Amino acid sequence: MQKLDTCPFALRCCALVLTLGWFPGLAYAGSVQLFEHSAASVASGGTNQAEAKDASAMFWNPAALTRLPDSNVSGALHFIEPTGKLADISGRAARTSTPLTGSDGGSAGIFSPAASFYYAKALTPDTTVGFAMTAPFGNALAYEDGWVGRYFALESELLTVDLGLSVGYKATPTLSLGFGVDLQYAKATLGNAIDLSATCIAVLGAMPCSASGFGTPGNAAADGRVAVKQDSWEPGWNVGLLWHPSADFRLGLAYRSKVDHELEGDASFVKPANLPATINGLAALTNGGTKTDLPLPPSAALSAFYQINESLSVTGSATWTKWSVVKELRTRFDNGAADSVIPLQWENTWRIGTGLAYKATPALTLRTGVAYDQSPTTSTSLQTLLIPDADRWVLGIGGSYALSQASSIDFGVTRYFLKNLPVESSATLSGSISTRYPSAGINAISVQGNFRF
């Protein structure tokens, strides 16, 4: 078999290798599944799903709408920031054993805002309808230009906005049912550097590339760059039931459907002016349309609330997410390049936790909660620098303050403590990298206003 560096014009035989080397694909994991949908949920570590204290209850379970009298409005602001820096970074350039040089990537986490809005109206004593705007999935990372792992990740962002209509119906004095429909928007941005020296040698051979300044793989001065930006709108649905045999106890069960996004957008390339014409003209390096299948998984949640006495209540929840629907991530290109296929092999996960609420004064309620949240990633080799992920402990703290009988404010802080997170990646024209996040985490801060009229 002929070696790549001795077939300078065999562009078709190189196309698949080139494409797989340039596009890491759209990757995500449990760390982008957000539980920050109300300030009270942030304060309780996401464990108060059956409390049903305000209009935000409809996100967790549409049946909980029946516990809201009159008309209710809740609006929340959330601020989320992944934290941590990489350590023990070791990278090798493609086609050589030369170590990759550059910075450690810096603090890649981006301080990102999100918002939630809820409106609920009781139509009859037994029927309540609601509208919700939430962000069920999201993440954002940006590494320093020129860092060691630049061929695998420079930027990664996933934004979702979910618009939901729900109805809750009290079927019996002790059982409520709920149903909702959703229209979900997803927007994704991915970017990484391209080792054009490795690409040039693969296509033209070492000598012509050296003469043009592209003869040394891993040379940052000869790098290119690609950014893929895509979005889509897709429908979903959710159902729930709430059993409330007494004023002191509630048990809820809810299910949210999978949302199958087919993201569409464009791939944009930045290339050096002195890039050899043959390489510059490669179809796989040409701006063009893209499509990526992005299944956002279904989930089911069991939740409970118990009022121990006038001052103290306990909550609990167990949420199952079917990440196994993600077998691979496939990006298709209009420029004729071969598909980029990333096998992920995610596994289903559980998030289990409990929380406490203590009424310190007639107006002030203090909250806390702890949970354990599994990662769907099954091995180090399936980790990605675009959105690194690991099992995590979750701790929340905060409270609620009643301004009047019809208005209140909530506040909460959550900290995710991720375990040691190793990452190993390799690709034909990107080289290889081995590194780890020794103490990564996520901070979330929320504030919310609630009004009844």
Q: From the alpha-carbon coordinates, what is the Rg to the nearest angstrom?
A: 25 Å
Helix residue percentage = under 10%
Could you tell me how far the N terminus lies from the C terminus, measured between alpha carbons in angstroms?
77 Å
Report strand order across the widest sheet: 1-3-4-6-7-8-9-12-13-16-17-18-19-22
pLDDT averaged residue by residue? 88
Report the structural category: mainly beta
What is the total tally of β strands? 22
Name the assembly state: single chain
**Largest sheet features:** 14 strands, antiparallel, barrel
Total DSSP helices: 6
Compressed to H and E, one letter per element, the order equals: HHHEEEEEEEHHEEEHEEEEEEEEEEEE
Unreliable sequence segments:
1-29
Q: How does the overall form come out from the CA principal axes?
A: elongated
User: Roughly what fraction of the amino acids lie in strands?
Assistant: over 45%
